[in-house]
Structure formats: C-alpha cells, structure tokens
Amino acid sequence: MGFKKKSKVSAEFNMSSLTDIIFLLLIFFMLTSSMIVPNALNLKLPGKSKNNTELKAPPTNIQIKRNGTYWIRGQKVSLTKIRKAVINLGRKGRPVSMTLSPDPKVPNEYVVAIMDIAWKYKVETIIADIK
After folding, report:
1. What pTM was computed for the model?
2. Fewer beta carbons under 10 A from the terminal one: N or C of the chain?
C-alpha cells in the first residue's frame, strides 16, 4: 500500500504583508515631509523688476569684516545702530535700499542678522562681493 503525503511544503512567499508595510511607510513619510517648513531667506535674484521705481538716493553700503564688525561709510557701528539707521531711512518716505558687502570668510550669522533687519523694515538689500 503506497500512501502519499497530502501536506506539501510550499516554496512561495506571501508578498501581501510586505506591501502593507511599504504602503504604511510611504504614508508616514508623505505626512511628515509636508510638516517640515524650510528656513530660508527670500533673496531676489538679478533680473527685470516688476516695478520701475527709481531710487533718488544711493544705497547705503554696509560692510561686514572678517572678525564680525559692521562698517557704514568707514565708521565701525553696532547692530543696534544699524537697526536705527534703517528705521531712519524708512521714515523719509522714499524707496530704501542698501548694499551688503560681507567678507568671504565671515560667518553666516552676521549676514543673516543684517538680512533679518532689512526684511523686517522692508528694505531692498543687494549682496555684493568684496574684491
């Protein structure tokens, strides 16, 4: 009497549990990536401007030296004096702009401090290279 085994070992792999895990990971990353807000500066690149307002006065030049000191018109000033100068420029009722000339080796935090002041008081700022 030859009895045959009815239970065979299956060599197939069930993919349904793996696809469920991948689908859940995809949903998780999609949800968490939409909650991330990038911290970036809103820089205007050179090109054609939409408004053709001409500046009556030359822009104020602010230099940042390698050691982190601020200079306006050849005078060393503090960050609070720069803030007061920008406020005074804005009170004159004309379009205000300034150029920012940081040393290439200056830390970014000094440049961002000036850009933050300019953004807060709506001053057009141009970053220029020091040669």
Report:
1. 0.56
2. N
CATH number at residue 77: 3.30.420.270
* Cβ-based burial of 101 (10 A; exposed 0-12, middle 13-18, buried ≥19): middle
24: which DSSP letter?
Answer: H
What is the dihedral angle through the alpha carbons of 45, 50, 55, 60, rounded to the nearest 10 degrees? -20
Of 82, 79, 44, the residue nearest 61 (C-alpha): 82
Determine, yes or no, domain membership for 109.
yes
Using CA atoms, how far residue 67 sits from 21, 56, 71, in Å, is 53, 33, 12
Question: At 79, which helix (H) or strand (E)?
Answer: helix 79-90
